[in-house]
Amino acid sequence: MEDVRILPLGPDGVLVRFADALSDAANRAALAFRADLETAALTGVVETATSLTSVFLRFRPDLTTRATLVEALTERLGTRDWLAADLPGGRTLWHIPAVFDGPHAPDLAEVARQIGRDPDRAIAELTATPVRVLALGFAPGQPYLGFLDEHWNIPRRTEVTPEVPQGAVVVAVRQVIPFANPAPTGWWQIGRTAFRCYDPALEPALPLSPGDEIRFQSVPLATWERLLTAPRGGAETEALA
Amino acid sequence: MTLIVETVGPAVSVQDGGRAGGLGQGLSRSGAADRQGYMAACALAGAPLGAAALEMAGFGGRFRVTDPCRIALAGAPMRATLDGAPLEWNAVHPVPAGAVLDIGAAEEGVYGYLLPGGGVTTEVELGGRGFHKIAGLGAALTAGDVLPVAPDAEPDEPPMRLPPGLAATGPLRVMPGPQTDLFTKADRARFADTVFTRSPRANRQGVRLDQSGAPFSAGAQLSRVSDFIAEGDIQMTGDGTPYVLLADCQTMGGYPRIGTVLPVDLPRIAQALPGAEFRFRFVSVEEAEALWRSDEAQLADLTRRREPLVRDPRSMGDLLSYELIGKPLDD
């Protein structure tokens, strides 16, 4: 576990980072370690959360100290090989329709150039690869999905796009994100879905959980338009073993 | 009872103490952009933390209440009148039903707070009432909005104020974070030596800082793994431009952050006007932890400082109409 680091993040936050680079093992480790911390209920810890490769703890410095917490975390990190942890149980596979051309794919040509494929081949690869919910972040219920193959390891853009629309499907660094809301981003937009990451009208309002898997399905523009009013944007689910 | 929004500035919204505990679901806390200013309004009104107020960026609007209640005014001082008579800022005033409360332009700073005694009681969504743009929750207020408000327990309490504290000066304190050591020692030193200017590009999500020197690069920063963000983080975008992230920040991001502005100093950035100049000073993690104070402790401090509002004769334009010399005492 020599790569694990315990780092400060704000005066009332601790970050346990399992790896500097994105990796499947580090993501699984983060999910399992957070589950362990939720069970442990350490004094003064008021919130835990996972990102792609890290666990965050918010604590109350008036109820505990950083030093006490770091000691407890170091001890728990030593109890097992977290990088060998399994994925959580009860996961769901989502089939999510999206349109991947025309005005909804403004960056597809550039992304295809960067990954060395033609645009049709790029979308064929994307829709053939099940991607896992590595973390929810940026906006409520919004998933960071991975991993695409290594040649999709393209950097973010240098200039932030002032706004991509709700449902924009964006890619960078071997990951895909369906955007929950209109937002600025440095990622590349190659499609758009009618799936909503947060829908207060449905139960659960935040449908995705870390560990779930998603397969995008390419649909024509007319289908996407029709799905805008469908529950979950036409997404279908099946249970994963 | 309700609060009627007759006219309103372009960036007025309901804000409260934010939505805690949602980080794992992608929900940042958000809430008031100047948490200290918001808590001052809570203290003035004797309202609990979490009471929902109007946050007014730059300009307020014209408001009326349908029942008598107190209204606390705090944060960035704004020109305020009640039926035409000036109202002191950083104070709480009894407001009769139907009276016209006009809140004009900010006289200094950006975010002012208007808190009815009982708090605004719009619907709670994902644990809060505040407008959180990137989370897609709530909306800015528009003219004609009618907001539900809980009845004020003490609508007739005489006006109270918070005496002005000492204005904070000096460099803003920054603690190291998970990506601080991605920046070279030389760049960190240069960062601490640089005078930054608050850019006109700013909102509740963050404030851009301009400077004339070379950009602050962390190397290979466009491919870094996204990770958690703390409010107050100083993020370097792809071109090395720093942004200080405020209440509406995203929960995680990939741009490297050179450090985190301490919560105690963050309102100074939120309230800064375009052109304001800043410097930063790195402090240790231990110093940052020692300077942390809970919301409850801060509110209790503010509440203790509350005192009756006595009008200053120099600000009373109609002095002659007051019976300054009353009749002699009977004995």
Fold topology:
The complex is a heterodimer of chains A (241) and B (331).
Chain A: E1 5-8, E2 13-17, H1 24-40, E3 45-50, E4 54-59, H2 66-77, E5 92-99, H3 108-115, H4 119-128, E6 131-136, E7 143-146, E8 161-164, E9 168-172, E10 175-178, E11 183-185, E12 188-193, E13 213-218, H5 221-227, E14 236-239
Parallel strand pairs in A: 5-13
Antiparallel strand pairs in A: 1-2, 2-4, 3-4, 5-12, 5-14, 6-7, 6-13, 7-10, 8-11, 9-10, 9-12
Chain B: E1 2-8, E2 12-15, H1 35-45, E3 53-57, E4 59-65, E5 69-75, E6 78-82, E7 85-86, E8 91-95, E9 101-106, E10 111-116, E11 146-148, E12 160-161, E13 172-175, H2 185-193, E14 196-202, E15 206-210, E16 227-228, E17 233-236, E18 242-245, E19 252-253, E20 257-261, H3 266-270, E21 277-278, E22 280-282, H4 285-291, H5 295-305, E23 307-308
Parallel strand pairs in B: 13-22
Antiparallel strand pairs in B: 1-4, 1-11, 2-3, 3-10, 4-9, 5-8, 5-10, 6-7, 6-9, 8-12, 12-23, 13-20, 14-15, 14-21, 15-18, 16-19, 17-18, 17-20
Helix pairs in contact in B: 1-5
Question: How would you characterize the overall build of this protein?
Answer:
- By secondary structure, chain A is of the alpha+beta class.
- The longest helix of chain A is centred in the first third of the chain and has 17 residues.
- The radius of gyration of chain A is 19 Å and the shape is globular.
- Chain A starts with a strand and ends with a strand.
- The model of chain A has no long low-confidence stretch (mean pLDDT 95).
- Chain B folds into two domains: 161 residues, no CATH class; 120 residues, Beta Barrel (Cyclophilin).
- In chain B, the strands form four sheets. Chain B has an eight-stranded mixed beta sheet with strand order 21-14-15-18-17-20-13-22. A seven-stranded antiparallel beta sheet of chain B has the order 2-3-10-5-8-12-23, covered by helices on one side. A six-stranded antiparallel beta sheet of chain B has the order 7-6-9-4-1-11, with no helix packed on it.
- At the A-B interface, strand 1, strand 2, strand 3 and strand 4 of A face strand 16, strand 19 and helix 4 of B.
